[in-house]
Amino acid sequence: MSVSETYYPSEPTAPVVKTSAIPGPESQKQTKELSTVFDTRPVYFVADYEKSNGNYIADVDGNVYLDVYAQIASIALGYNNPALIEAAKSPEMIRALVERPALGNFPGKDFKQILDNILKVAPKGQDKIWSGLSGADANELAFKAAFMHYQAKKRGYATGFSEEEEATTMLNQSPGSPELAILSFKRAFHGRLFASASATCSKPIHKIDLPSFKWPKAEYPDYKYPLEDNAEYNDAEDKRCLAIVENLLNDWHAPVAAVIIEPIQSEGGDNHGSAAFFQGLRDLTLKYGSLLIIDEVQTGVGATGTMWAHEHFNLSPAPDMVTFSKKFQSAGYFFHDPELVPNYSYRQFNTWCGDPARMIIAGAIAKEVVDKNLIANAKEVGDYLFGKLEELSKKYPTELSKLRGKGRATFIAWDASSSEARNNFLAKMKLNGVNVGGCADHSIRLRPTLTFGKKHADLLVATIDKVLSEN
């Protein structure tokens, strides 16, 4: 019995499309009503989550779609997962929801166990956690930790603040508010808050009109595919990009406290980096005294065939921080160096310090991933799916080009011939009962759940073939 059948004995066997347009009339009606109090311009359709099941999402018009986008990569186990429903009914969850403790001041007696359940699947080399509210928040909290750590090293970890530092920081001036930088990469996406938007460099819409920190942007490798046929070119590309990073670390006008990078740039086009590139980057951060932050907001929790995507690279030493969110349904960063805890309390702090309700769900997800061996399932199904798509790419070399994600489970993407062709493809896939997402200008990305099976892969490939054959 497959994983999805174990969880979802009543999961649909195929999509159902009842309307001639998507969104359908009822979705359009409810979207219009919602628009009076909420910005509905990005809405695809209005979902009916009660009727959604496993790898299928339903809408209010009665359409049922195979979902390989999964709430922008944030559903780990499928819709209406029974294990998560049981976790939601637990006494711990009731307390977390009703009391919403201010964790920094008044942690509950169950809080240590809640965190331990998450730390059981922490990235290799990490044994501590700081919690946040979203992926962007996790990255901003990591930036704060990096800046405070940089200054603590400079003045001495046990040394207090000078009167000048205290006075000038109240005026947003140095030395109390020093000029420090976070180095990120072109095509990166790290969030839409102020500091995270300053590190983001994927689309102007994410950050235009916002005041920003003037931080450096390096170049992320842009490989030729298939990888095995372009090893020499891609090796040179790694070296070219690492040279740019070193120049920025060496020459930037302000100290670079940390480098943040995604193992696979997701929003920016599903761009992959090699183990050699990432180890080279780790070596450079050590050489120049910058911390390394791995942004696993979208790549984490098993989607690439390891619990954390950067574990494919076997980095030595381990990154300084690893941020997470999405499939974990919670957010924050893992770390291991005790000196990343600020030397005074109330520096890394807010009222709630995260959300224990979401942490309980994260722990339940972690348990299911381990107990049901879902990473092995994702890897097996991903290899199967990639092989099918390789064959399909020979049939449609223009509209299914630069296929990437081999050996990365179901974290697969490809390029269409243009932005218009990509958008038309996504629309036609929905009309054929499959919900797929795009990224960058003309890329298509797959983000199914960890319970996605070979039968789902077959249906997906057949639908892609049908849609492309009609062009």
Description:
By secondary structure, this protein is an alpha/beta fold. The strands form four sheets. The protein has a seven-stranded mixed beta sheet with strand order 3-11-10-9-6-4-5, sandwiched between helices. Helix 6 packs parallel to helix 12, helix 10 runs parallel beside helix 11 and helix 13 runs parallel beside helix 15. It has two domains: 179 residues, Aspartate Aminotransferase, domain 1, CATH 3.90.1150; 254 residues, Type I PLP-dependent aspartate aminotransferase-like (Major domain) (Aspartate Aminotransferase, domain 2, 3-Layer(aba) Sandwich), CATH 3.40.640.
Key words describing this protein structure:
471 residues, alpha/beta, Aspartate Aminotransferase, domain 1, Aspartate Aminotransferase, domain 2, 2 domains, four-stranded antiparallel β-sheet, 16 strands, EC 2.6.1.19, pyridoxal phosphate, Aminotrans_3, transferase, Aminotrans_3_PPA_site
